Amino acid sequence: MAAIGNQMLESAQPTDVPGKGLVSCATGGFGGVAEGAAIYSEGQGNNYGTRIEDNVISGSFGPALDINGAWGGTFRKNVVSGNTGWAAVSLYGASQWLIEDNQINHPANEPAQPYHPYCATGPAGGNSAGIFLCQDKDADNLVTNDNIIRNNQSASFYGILSVGADEIQPYWAPRKNSFQNNNVFGSHFGCADDFTPGQWFSDDNLWSGNNCAGTANTGPTYF
Fold first, then answer.
1. Which residues of 186-199 are buried (b: 16+ CB within 10 A; e: fewer)?
2. Which pTM was predicted?
Protein backbone atom coordinates (compact mmCIF):
# COMPACT_ATOMS: atom_id res chain seq x y z
CA MET A 1 0.00 0.00 0.00
CA ALA A 2 1.22 3.50 -0.77
CA ALA A 3 -0.16 6.93 0.14
CA ILE A 4 2.09 9.67 -1.19
CA GLY A 5 1.46 13.39 -1.55
CA ASN A 6 -2.15 13.48 -0.41
CA GLN A 7 -4.28 15.88 1.60
CA MET A 8 -6.08 13.75 4.20
CA LEU A 9 -8.41 16.18 5.91
CA GLU A 10 -11.33 15.55 8.26
CA SER A 11 -11.14 11.76 7.79
CA ALA A 12 -13.81 9.55 9.33
CA GLN A 13 -15.72 12.38 10.93
CA PRO A 14 -19.07 11.39 12.45
CA THR A 15 -22.35 12.12 10.69
CA ASP A 16 -25.59 13.01 12.44
CA VAL A 17 -28.08 10.35 11.27
CA PRO A 18 -31.74 11.01 12.21
CA GLY A 19 -32.86 8.57 14.86
CA LYS A 20 -29.33 7.25 15.41
CA GLY A 21 -27.36 10.28 16.48
CA LEU A 22 -23.70 10.65 15.59
CA VAL A 23 -22.55 7.68 13.54
CA SER A 24 -19.04 7.05 12.25
CA CYS A 25 -16.91 4.06 11.44
CA ALA A 26 -16.02 4.24 15.13
CA THR A 27 -19.62 3.78 16.27
CA GLY A 28 -21.68 2.52 13.40
CA GLY A 29 -20.61 -1.12 13.21
CA PHE A 30 -19.79 -0.87 9.51
CA GLY A 31 -16.44 -2.66 9.74
CA GLY A 32 -14.50 0.54 10.25
CA VAL A 33 -11.65 0.98 12.66
CA ALA A 34 -12.21 1.62 16.31
CA GLU A 35 -11.39 5.31 16.38
CA GLY A 36 -11.78 6.33 12.75
CA ALA A 37 -8.07 6.74 12.07
CA ALA A 38 -7.01 8.43 8.85
CA ILE A 39 -4.80 5.40 8.07
CA TYR A 40 -5.31 2.02 9.74
CA SER A 41 -3.47 -1.26 9.13
CA GLU A 42 -4.04 -4.56 10.94
CA GLY A 43 -2.21 -7.87 10.89
CA GLN A 44 -0.27 -10.43 12.89
CA GLY A 45 3.24 -9.71 11.76
CA ASN A 46 2.17 -9.21 8.12
CA ASN A 47 4.48 -6.96 6.12
CA TYR A 48 2.41 -5.10 3.55
CA GLY A 49 5.25 -2.89 2.33
CA THR A 50 3.31 0.19 3.37
CA ARG A 51 4.67 3.61 2.31
CA ILE A 52 3.04 6.77 3.66
CA GLU A 53 5.03 9.82 2.60
CA ASP A 54 4.65 13.56 2.02
CA ASN A 55 1.02 13.76 3.13
CA VAL A 56 -0.88 16.36 5.13
CA ILE A 57 -3.05 14.55 7.68
CA SER A 58 -5.33 16.75 9.77
CA GLY A 59 -8.66 16.65 11.57
CA SER A 60 -9.14 12.88 11.66
CA PHE A 61 -11.66 11.32 14.03
CA GLY A 62 -8.82 9.28 15.53
CA PRO A 63 -5.05 8.95 15.05
CA ALA A 64 -3.40 9.94 11.80
CA LEU A 65 -1.69 6.52 11.71
CA ASP A 66 -3.00 3.56 13.72
CA ILE A 67 -1.01 0.35 13.23
CA ASN A 68 -2.40 -2.78 14.86
CA GLY A 69 -0.04 -5.70 14.30
CA ALA A 70 1.17 -4.86 10.79
CA TRP A 71 4.94 -4.80 10.30
CA GLY A 72 7.52 -3.17 8.12
CA GLY A 73 6.08 0.13 6.88
CA THR A 74 7.42 3.63 6.31
CA PHE A 75 5.82 6.84 7.59
CA ARG A 76 7.97 9.71 6.36
CA LYS A 77 7.83 13.47 5.77
CA ASN A 78 4.19 13.86 6.74
CA VAL A 79 2.66 16.95 8.33
CA VAL A 80 0.28 15.76 11.04
CA SER A 81 -1.89 18.09 13.13
CA GLY A 82 -5.20 18.45 14.91
CA ASN A 83 -6.25 14.80 14.90
CA THR A 84 -7.99 13.11 17.83
CA GLY A 85 -7.57 10.00 19.95
CA TRP A 86 -4.72 8.80 22.12
CA ALA A 87 -1.92 9.52 19.64
CA ALA A 88 -1.08 11.02 16.28
CA VAL A 89 1.09 8.01 15.37
CA SER A 90 0.27 4.74 17.15
CA LEU A 91 2.23 1.48 16.83
CA TYR A 92 0.69 -1.51 18.62
CA GLY A 93 2.26 -4.93 18.09
CA ALA A 94 4.09 -3.35 15.17
CA SER A 95 7.75 -4.02 14.36
CA GLN A 96 10.31 -2.86 11.80
CA TRP A 97 8.61 0.45 11.01
CA LEU A 98 10.47 3.59 9.99
CA ILE A 99 8.90 6.77 11.39
CA GLU A 100 11.05 9.58 10.02
CA ASP A 101 11.13 13.34 9.31
CA ASN A 102 7.51 14.00 10.32
CA GLN A 103 6.07 17.20 11.78
CA ILE A 104 3.55 16.14 14.43
CA ASN A 105 1.36 18.41 16.52
CA HIS A 106 -1.31 16.47 18.42
CA PRO A 107 -3.75 17.90 20.99
CA ALA A 108 -2.49 17.39 24.53
CA ASN A 109 -5.97 17.05 26.01
CA GLU A 110 -7.08 13.91 24.17
CA PRO A 111 -7.87 10.78 26.25
CA ALA A 112 -5.45 7.95 26.87
CA GLN A 113 -5.32 4.68 24.90
CA PRO A 114 -8.75 3.06 25.47
CA TYR A 115 -8.23 -0.52 24.22
CA HIS A 116 -5.03 -1.65 25.96
CA PRO A 117 -5.18 -0.70 29.64
CA TYR A 118 -1.53 -1.51 30.35
CA CYS A 119 -0.58 1.05 27.72
CA ALA A 120 -2.94 3.77 28.89
CA THR A 121 -0.71 5.44 31.46
CA GLY A 122 2.73 7.01 31.36
CA PRO A 123 4.77 8.55 34.19
CA ALA A 124 2.55 11.66 34.21
CA GLY A 125 -0.77 9.83 33.96
CA GLY A 126 -3.07 8.80 31.15
CA ASN A 127 -2.67 11.34 28.37
CA SER A 128 -2.26 11.56 24.61
CA ALA A 129 1.05 11.30 22.77
CA GLY A 130 2.53 12.49 19.52
CA ILE A 131 4.28 9.17 18.87
CA PHE A 132 3.05 6.12 20.79
CA LEU A 133 4.43 2.58 20.99
CA CYS A 134 2.60 -0.19 22.88
CA GLN A 135 3.13 -3.90 23.57
CA ASP A 136 1.05 -5.84 26.10
CA LYS A 137 1.62 -9.47 24.96
CA ASP A 138 3.93 -11.51 22.73
CA ALA A 139 1.47 -13.95 21.11
CA ASP A 140 0.46 -13.75 17.43
CA ASN A 141 3.55 -11.71 16.52
CA LEU A 142 2.11 -8.71 18.39
CA VAL A 143 5.48 -7.36 19.48
CA THR A 144 6.78 -3.82 19.09
CA ASN A 145 10.47 -4.29 18.31
CA ASP A 146 13.13 -2.98 15.95
CA ASN A 147 11.35 0.22 14.94
CA ILE A 148 13.33 3.32 13.96
CA ILE A 149 11.89 6.64 15.15
CA ARG A 150 14.12 9.47 13.95
CA ASN A 151 14.27 13.15 13.02
CA ASN A 152 10.68 13.84 14.02
CA GLN A 153 9.21 16.96 15.57
CA SER A 154 6.52 15.64 17.93
CA ALA A 155 4.42 17.77 20.28
CA SER A 156 1.53 16.57 22.45
CA PHE A 157 1.11 15.85 26.15
CA TYR A 158 3.80 13.20 25.72
CA GLY A 159 6.11 13.85 22.81
CA ILE A 160 7.04 10.16 22.65
CA LEU A 161 5.50 7.47 24.86
CA SER A 162 6.74 3.87 24.72
CA VAL A 163 4.77 1.69 27.13
CA GLY A 164 3.82 -1.91 27.84
CA ALA A 165 2.67 -4.58 30.27
CA ASP A 166 6.01 -5.29 31.89
CA GLU A 167 4.15 -5.59 35.17
CA ILE A 168 3.13 -9.03 33.87
CA GLN A 169 6.29 -10.06 32.02
CA PRO A 170 9.48 -7.96 31.88
CA TYR A 171 9.67 -8.36 28.09
CA TRP A 172 6.08 -7.30 27.40
CA ALA A 173 7.03 -3.78 26.41
CA PRO A 174 8.46 -2.17 23.27
CA ARG A 175 12.11 -3.31 22.98
CA LYS A 176 15.08 -2.92 20.67
CA ASN A 177 13.69 0.26 19.13
CA SER A 178 15.89 3.16 18.04
CA PHE A 179 14.91 6.75 18.85
CA GLN A 180 17.28 9.16 17.08
CA ASN A 181 17.41 12.96 16.84
CA ASN A 182 13.77 13.61 17.70
CA ASN A 183 12.63 16.96 19.10
CA VAL A 184 9.60 17.05 21.38
CA PHE A 185 9.60 20.80 22.01
CA GLY A 186 6.11 21.98 22.94
CA SER A 187 5.13 18.78 24.74
CA HIS A 188 4.06 18.81 28.38
CA PHE A 189 6.21 15.73 29.05
CA GLY A 190 9.02 14.97 26.65
CA CYS A 191 9.89 11.28 26.23
CA ALA A 192 8.91 8.29 28.38
CA ASP A 193 10.13 4.68 28.12
CA ASP A 194 8.59 1.81 30.07
CA PHE A 195 11.53 -0.53 29.32
CA THR A 196 14.31 0.33 31.74
CA PRO A 197 17.86 -0.51 30.57
CA GLY A 198 18.80 -3.98 31.76
CA GLN A 199 15.21 -5.00 32.34
CA TRP A 200 15.50 -7.98 29.97
CA PHE A 201 18.92 -9.09 28.77
CA SER A 202 20.34 -6.67 26.18
CA ASP A 203 17.04 -5.70 24.55
CA ASP A 204 17.21 -2.03 25.55
CA ASN A 205 15.76 0.70 23.41
CA LEU A 206 18.41 3.01 21.98
CA TRP A 207 17.97 6.74 22.59
CA SER A 208 20.51 9.04 20.94
CA GLY A 209 20.64 12.70 19.98
CA ASN A 210 17.10 13.49 21.10
CA ASN A 211 15.79 16.65 22.70
CA CYS A 212 13.56 15.06 25.34
CA ALA A 213 13.96 17.60 28.13
CA GLY A 214 14.33 21.01 26.52
CA THR A 215 17.97 20.74 25.48
CA ALA A 216 19.91 18.71 22.94
CA ASN A 217 21.06 15.18 23.75
CA THR A 218 18.61 14.57 26.56
CA GLY A 219 17.01 11.18 27.01
CA PRO A 220 13.71 9.76 28.22
CA THR A 221 12.23 9.28 31.64
CA TYR A 222 12.14 5.57 32.49
CA PHE A 223 9.18 4.33 34.48
1. ebebbbbbbbeeee
2. 0.91
